[in-house]
Design brief:
It is a single chain. This protein has 11 helices and 8 strands. It has 249 residues and is α/β, with parallel strands linked by helices. Strands 5-4-1-6-7-8 form a 6-stranded parallel beta sheet, with helices on both faces. Strands 2-3 form a two-stranded antiparallel ribbon. Helix 1 runs antiparallel to helix 4 and helix 2 (48-68) packs antiparallel against helix 3.
């Protein structure tokens, strides 16, 4: 195993390689309408009462998920949230095919709110040219969404491995998801660096197991970063991804 010298660079995705544009509450409205349309076409939610209950309860359960998802660092997936609610509403026409078609419709709307950082591909290409190995670690409740975003933005082929909390079962900063990546590459923590926009998830998660951390300050002002600003100190701070290759020299 390599020790000391950084040979592996792991990237967060949302907020790091891609960034959001509009306020998410408006995006979520459109996403939920797309999901409901698929369910209605499948014969579910035909009853107005059920439709109203679903609209309110799905939004509520997603809001609860967003509030609680970092409490124990376990990932509750959106397929599980949706399936549980539909069972309570007694929607027998919803099988796995319909369930995932609905979620694909939901996330096709949220994907419209993401934009590729213009420095992402040049930075990844330069790191690859210099011989660094690379992987992606993403906190996400629906794994297909991550894979689709990576493909659509031309990022997928840069990464030898991708670890998503929806598949691993644990969210950053839980060490499990980091060790999954390190074991795959057979590289010690001291030989790896984590790049991300979240101080508690990316920076503290990496530092907890002895990895180097590179914090991109794009989302410096959000609450989760402000709450730990004095306690969590990254090894390196960048304003743009293009700074990374020279920092690692």
């Amino acid at each position: 195993m390599n020790e000391g010298v950084i040979t592996l660079v792991l990237f967060d995705m949302g907020g790091t390689l891609i960034y959001s544009l509009d306020r998410w509450e408006f995006v979520m409205d459109a996403a939920q309408r797309a999901l409901e349309a698929v369910l209605q076409n499948a014969g579910c939610l035909q009853d107005e009462k059920k439709k109203t209950i679903f609209r309110l309860e799905f939004r509520h359960r997603m809001e609860v998920y967003y509030l609680r998802r970092n409490e124990n660092m376990r990932e509750e997936t959106t397929p599980a949230i949706l399936e549980g609610l539909l069972k309570e509403l007694h929607c027998p026409t919803v099988n796995d095919e319909v369930l995932f078609a609905g979620l694909d419709a939901f996330y096709s709307e949220t994907q419209k709110n993401w934009r590729l950082d213009p420095q992402a591909i040049p930075t990844l290409a330069e790191l690859s040219r210099r011989g660094y190995r690379m992987g992606c670690i993403s906190n996400a409740a629906y794994a297909p969404d991550v894979y689709q975003l990576l493909e659509k933005n031309g990022l997928r082929d840069f990464f030898e491995g991708i670890w998503i909390s929806a598949e691993v079962g644990f969210r950053k900063p839980n060490p499990v998801i980091f060790y999954k990546a390190l074991d795959f590459f057979d590289i010690a923590p001291s030989g790896a660096a984590m790049v991300g926009d979240s101080l508690p998830a990316d920076v503290q998660g990496a530092r907890n197991i002895g990895m180097k951390s590179i914090w991109i300050t794009r989302n410096e002002q959000i609450e989760e970063n402000q709450a730990v600003m004095d306690a969590v100190k990254p090894d390196m701070v960048i304003q743009s991804l293009v700074e990374i290759p020279s920092l690692l020299e």
